Predict the structure.
Amino acid sequence: MKKLWLNKGKEQSVLRRHPWVFSGAVKKAEEGLQEGDPVEVYSSQNQLLGVGHYQPGNISVRLLEFGPAIFNSEFWLQKINQAYALRKQLGLIGSKDTSAYRLVFAEGDGLPGLIVDVYGSTAVLQAHSLGMWRERQPIAEAVVAVSEGQINAVYDKSGETLPAGQANAGNGYLIGEGGGYDVVMENRVRFKIDWVGGQKTGFFLDQRENRALLGQYAKGKRVLNTFCYTGGFSVYALEAGATEVHSVDVSAKAVALTDENVALNSGAERHQSFAMDTFVFLKEKGADYDIIILDPPAFAKRMNVRHNALMGYKRLNYEAIRHIRPGGLLFTFSCSGVVDKLLFQNTVMAAAIEANRPVKVLHQLSQPADHPYSLYHPEGEYLKGLVLQVL
Ligand code: SAH
């Protein structure tokens, strides 16, 4: 295995179990070290700090282990088994109410660059680094091996997560086969997941608990679900007895998926969907809702566009706060990693000030436990939400 040495003093963050080695911390690397290679990271004192995957760029190494390691079948088995044991502890495996969960959440499971979502008996894998992608076959085998017979197919969806030209990543089954979709349950609500044609791995699992919370408030209410994608929040609201639910997404394909999921459950006659831009919809038809959900895509993926993202969140929340019925509830989210909880709350406050209405915070929401983050890697906390009552 190739080696890499850090500058004096730069070992501190790694010793504190932060898994990223920034390029500025690197003193030298062994000749021939290439993107995707496993690499041992040493301090300037020649102390082995950990082993990770090398990548040229701002983050040079993402560490999978703080100490010695060899990335072989046994290693993947042990890592995936640990991730599986956590989901079991959480009650997500073998549950009679929920058959979709995240099995591997990158740094949060000590596997930076790897996402594995499970839908029924199929696991969908997305590699975000060349190093992880190269290991997809032993990883897929480990997923099936640890699953106690629950998972029998693994689909690789890395085609869109690896930067083009770095790898010939295409999408396809690594193990087993299937029709490309399945109907799963989330808290007893039914969803069709299309991992071949859908966004990301096919479904946004991170909103499971927040959708359930919406269900608690939705009975007898008129609900607007914006950025609905596959209609997660809409279906929960209908199941809970909302009088009327409107779903909005700019993508016609997403709206069709929402309609399909509504049809799989109850209340289609109380539901209407709109292939429209949320900003336009709120301006034109945003009035008279008791509950509005705002779950936009990440407006900012990087620091240099954060300001524009904040302007976007402000404008969006302003339109919703301005329009919602007195006493109504706003479920508002941000999944931009670079916008932290406090910054998000302050942005929503700025929107409320402009709308000039009294607003109370009822709940502070986050990502569920199958999307864990290391305490030493706060960057892993990305989803934040607020439930607000607007008077
Ligand atoms: N709330 C969803 C996930 C949202 S993903 C869930 O629980 O599953 C973000 C969605 O926003 C995508 O489906 C995307 O098509 C949609 N989108 C992006 N920009 C939009 C816009 N300006 N107006 C409406 N929808 C938009």
About this structure: The pocket of S-adenosyl-L-homocysteine is lined by residues 204, 207, 227-230, 232-233, 248-251, 254, 277-278, 295-297 (CB under 6 Å).
